[in-house]
Design goal:
By secondary structure, this protein is an alpha/beta fold. The protein is built from 11 helices and 7 strands. It has one domain: 3-Layer(aba) Sandwich (Beta-carbonic Anhydrase, Chain A). Bound molecules: zinc ion (ZN).
Length: about 240
């Protein structure tokens, strides 16, 4: 009996230890003070922690009626996430960010164009976001479509934005568009390309990055495990 009791106490202590990590009850989005105080690296850690909660099925409990009350008068998101339109790769969910924490831009193949850059400029320079993430995912239909030079009409135009990544990967090895590893390699290259495009094509964001006010990051979301691998940190060219 004594032995059982000791075992029970040990299990309770162990459970309490685990309970130190979230889920927490969330009653507001990022506040103005929090947004001002946080660094880009700390924002990245917040997104990593959110993804860990997602993969472990321990997501925060969002009290949406309170969050609505507390965010209706203004928003102070700390990040912008550009993702694919894939129904399984929603940034708010896979990074467990509730309401009022992140701007999200979505387009097939998570490619950057002028409208997306304009949105990112609004999110950073005008609204204070400190981190821009380009998040692609495994098994992406848009990447496969670009690899096969498929699509028609406007879709064809969109997929052309991924051609440079197809070209880069196929210049190193013979690629097979039916092979998932090859598609994922192109997806990864496309993420790097799009992060670089943001810096090259937006003078506004280039300046913010040069001043260390904004950080650019590339990430790959694994649809099977749920894990988001933040594998690419953009480094500004040294003069
Ligand atoms: Zn996709």
């Amino acid at each position: 009996m004594k032995k059982l009791l000791v075992g029970f106490i040990f299990i309770m202590a162990f459970n309490i230890g685990l309970a130190d990590s979230p889920p927490q009850v969330i009653t507001t989005g990022v506040t103005q003070l929090q947004q001002q105080a946080i660094t880009p690296e700390q924002v990245l850690n917040k997104l990593k922690a959110g993804n860990q909660r997602f993969t472990e099925n321990k997501m925060n409990h969002n009290d949406f009626s309170q969050i609505r009350k507390n965010t209706a008068s203004g928003q102070y998101p700390y990040a912008f996430v550009l993702s694919c339109i894939d129904s399984r790769s929603s940034p708010d969910l896979v990074l467990d960010q509730g309401l009022g924490n992140i701007f999200v831009g979505r387009v097939a193949g998570n490619i950057v164009n002028k409208n997306m850059l304009g949105s990112m400029e609004f999110a950073t320079k005008h609204s204070g976001a400190k981190l821009i993430v380009v998040m692609g995912h495994t098994d992406c239909g848009a990447i496969k479509g670009a690899c096969e030079k498929g699509g028609e009409n406007n879709l064809k135009t969109l997929l052309r934005g991924i051609y440079p990544a197809v070209k880069t990967v196929s210049s190193n090895k013979k690629i097979n568009c039916q092979n998932k590893a090859d598609i994922n390699a192109i997806a990864k290259q496309n993420i790097i390309d799009q992060v670089d495009n943001i810096y090259q094509d937006s003078n506004t964001i280039k300046q913010l990055v040069n001043e260390n006010k904004v950080m650019l990051v590339g990430a790959m979301h694994n649809l099977t495990t749920g894990k988001v691998d933040f594998f690419y940190i953009f480094k500004k060219p040294s003069n």
